[in-house]
Design goal:
single chain, about 45 residues, mainly alpha, 2 helices, about 80% helix
Length: about 45
């Protein structure tokens, strides 16, 4: 997904479809898991 389109979703200029919303949430969850893994490496 390009940054311009994501920005339009964030600011409400464009509305996401259910499928696109799911893809965005999956990406956010993946980033969260990666950050959590980095935090675990740092504390061990």
């Amino acid at each position: 997904m390009n940054a311009t389109l994501l920005s339009q979703y964030v600011f409400g200029t464009k509305k996401t479809s259910a499928k696109q919303s799911e893809k965005i949430l999956d990406g956010i969850n993946q980033i969260g898991q990666e950050l959590s893994g980095l935090n675990q490496l740092r504390t061990t």
